[in-house]
Amino acid sequence: MKNRPPFDLRRLLVFYNAAQVVFSTWLFYEFGMGGWFRGYSYRCQPVDYSQNPVAIRMAHASWWY
């Protein structure tokens, strides 16, 4: 191991970081469109057990988080 060159992971790490930025941007957008930008109450938001598409979208984004 003493005479071996180090692994070149630069391209892999650049791709990984770019994927994380894209995923974080998408997740922020999903949380926003699932509630925060649509009248979400920060004080007391009741639990929505319905099959409402907005509630499903928020649950889906929360699962990915």
From TrEMBL:
<dbReference type="GO" id="GO:0005789">
    <property type="term" value="C:endoplasmic reticulum membrane"/>
</dbReference>
<keyword id="KW-0275">Fatty acid biosynthesis</keyword>
<dbReference type="GO" id="GO:0034625">
    <property type="term" value="P:fatty acid elongation, monounsaturated fatty acid"/>
</dbReference>
<dbReference type="InterPro" id="IPR002076">
    <property type="entry name" value="ELO_fam"/>
</dbReference>
<keyword id="KW-0812">Transmembrane</keyword>
<protein>
    <recommendedName>
        <fullName>Elongation of very long chain fatty acids protein</fullName>
        <ecNumber>2.3.1.199</ecNumber>
    </recommendedName>
</protein>
<dbReference type="GO" id="GO:0019367">
    <property type="term" value="P:fatty acid elongation, saturated fatty acid"/>
</dbReference>
<keyword id="KW-1133">Transmembrane helix</keyword>
<dbReference type="GO" id="GO:0034626">
    <property type="term" value="P:fatty acid elongation, polyunsaturated fatty acid"/>
</dbReference>
<dbReference type="Pfam" id="PF01151">
    <property type="entry name" value="ELO"/>
</dbReference>
<keyword id="KW-0276">Fatty acid metabolism</keyword>
<dbReference type="GO" id="GO:0009922">
    <property type="term" value="F:fatty acid elongase activity"/>
</dbReference>
<keyword id="KW-0472">Membrane</keyword>
<dbReference type="GO" id="GO:0042761">
    <property type="term" value="P:very long-chain fatty acid biosynthetic process"/>
</dbReference>
<dbReference type="GO" id="GO:0030148">
    <property type="term" value="P:sphingolipid biosynthetic process"/>
</dbReference>
<keyword id="KW-0444">Lipid biosynthesis</keyword>
<comment type="similarity">
    <text>Belongs to the ELO family.</text>
</comment>
<keyword id="KW-0808">Transferase</keyword>
<keyword id="KW-0443">Lipid metabolism</keyword>
<feature type="transmembrane region" description="Helical">
    <location>
        <begin position="12"/>
        <end position="29"/>
    </location>
</feature>
